[in-house]
TrEMBL record:
<feature type="transmembrane region" description="Helical">
    <location>
        <begin position="202"/>
        <end position="223"/>
    </location>
</feature>
<keyword id="KW-0472">Membrane</keyword>
<dbReference type="GO" id="GO:0004930">
    <property type="term" value="F:G protein-coupled receptor activity"/>
</dbReference>
<comment type="similarity">
    <text>Belongs to the G-protein coupled receptor 1 family.</text>
</comment>
<keyword id="KW-0807">Transducer</keyword>
<protein>
    <recommendedName>
        <fullName>Olfactory receptor</fullName>
    </recommendedName>
</protein>
<dbReference type="GO" id="GO:0005886">
    <property type="term" value="C:plasma membrane"/>
</dbReference>
<dbReference type="InterPro" id="IPR000725">
    <property type="entry name" value="Olfact_rcpt"/>
</dbReference>
<keyword id="KW-1133">Transmembrane helix</keyword>
<keyword id="KW-0716">Sensory transduction</keyword>
<feature type="transmembrane region" description="Helical">
    <location>
        <begin position="268"/>
        <end position="287"/>
    </location>
</feature>
<feature type="transmembrane region" description="Helical">
    <location>
        <begin position="59"/>
        <end position="80"/>
    </location>
</feature>
<feature type="transmembrane region" description="Helical">
    <location>
        <begin position="100"/>
        <end position="118"/>
    </location>
</feature>
<feature type="transmembrane region" description="Helical">
    <location>
        <begin position="138"/>
        <end position="160"/>
    </location>
</feature>
<dbReference type="Pfam" id="PF13853">
    <property type="entry name" value="7tm_4"/>
</dbReference>
<keyword id="KW-0675">Receptor</keyword>
<feature type="transmembrane region" description="Helical">
    <location>
        <begin position="26"/>
        <end position="47"/>
    </location>
</feature>
């Protein structure tokens, strides 16, 4: 233990080793990140200034967009700049900070998606009581609860990581700091820590998926009594949310709900949910939503004027 944490700087192996491929990735991923900021930022602005987007659904959507910006900004800027660097380094403290915030915002997003599913359940199955159940106070409590859940999760993750002795090697086989790659640098057995991390993430994922599936199962059952037009409208409001849930949960489950590996596909899947998904979410939510498209169009005109 005398050599505990004699590693103060870490080196990423990166996504690819070929410098030319890294330059191509830079050209591809920089516009994706900028589109993430622009798309989610437009949703935030549209919901805040629009007179028609004041329902709970849009309040939750704007909260999700804020989380997407924060989550993406925790990982992607460093990743993009490293694509042009010969040696991709990060301090141990910086690595732990990245882990804290990536897990924090990641779990906030998971809980928000569950909250949005509950919102759709109330809107479709209890339409007459919707505004009473989903009052402004309740909406703020649900969003606040999602942030509290993310905070508790990230604190648990970092509490089990900080005491570990890191005495080399200092190379992380990834393009950003995450727990399983970091554990491989500890000069002690990390089986229990790895199990706790997988169990913690697994419980959150399983419980969230159970609530999501249950909510939509109840919605589908209730729609059997509706007219064809009523079913179409109800399913249309749920389609975007279901798409986002699939885009977020499938890659995340692939990474965090199974034993760690060094396969290159782990990194590629990570790119999907850290870089691509935050950009796709605003596109998914606006393509099928006329109100949102009109509000974004109006906010863009106000910006130009």
């Amino acid at each position: 233990m005398a050599n505990k944490n004699n590693v103060t700087e870490l080196i990423f192996t990166g996504l690819f080793q070929d410098p030319e491929v890294q330059k191509v990735c830079f050209v591809l991923f920089l516009p994706v990140y900028l589109a993430t900021l622009l798309g989610n930022g437009l949703i935030l602005v549209a919901v805040s200034i629009s007179k028609t987007l004041h329902s709970p659904m849009y309040f939750f959507l704007s909260s999700l967009s804020l989380v997407e910006i924060c989550y993406s900004s925790t990982i992607v800027p460093k990743f993009i700049t490293d694509l042009l660097a010969k040696v991709k380094t990060i301090s141990l403290k910086g690595c732990l900070t990245q882990i804290i915030f990536s897990h924090f915002f990641g779990v906030v997003e998971v809980i928000l998606l569950v909250v949005m599913a509950y919102d759709r359940y109330v809107a479709i199955c209890k339409p007459l009581h919707y505004m009473n159940i989903m009052s402004r106070q309740v909406c703020h409590m649900l969003v606040g609860g999602s942030w509290l859940g993310g905070f508790i999760h990230s604190i648990i993750q970092i509490i089990i990581t900080i005491p570990l002795p890191f005495c080399g090697p200092s190379v992380i086989d990834h393009y950003f700091c995450d727990l399983q790659p970091l554990f491989k640098l500890a000069c002690t057995d990390t089986f229990m820590e790895g199990f706790i991390v997988m169990a913690n993430s697994g419980v959150i994922s399983i419980v969230s998926l159970f609530i999501l599936v249950s909510s939509y199962a109840v919605i589908l059952i209730s729609l059997r009594k509706r007219s064809a037009e009523g079913r179409r409208k109800a399913l249309s409001t749920c389609a975007s949310h279901i798409t986002v849930v699939i885009l977020f949960f499938v890659p995340g489950a692939f990474i965090y709900m199974r034993p760690s590996s060094t396969f290159t596909e782990d990194k590629l899947v990570s790119v999907f949910y850290t870089v691509i998904t935050p950009m796709l979410n605003p596109i998914v939510y606006t393509l099928r939503n006329t109100e949102m498209k009109n509000a974004i169009r109006m906010s863009w005109k106000q910006k130009d004027s």
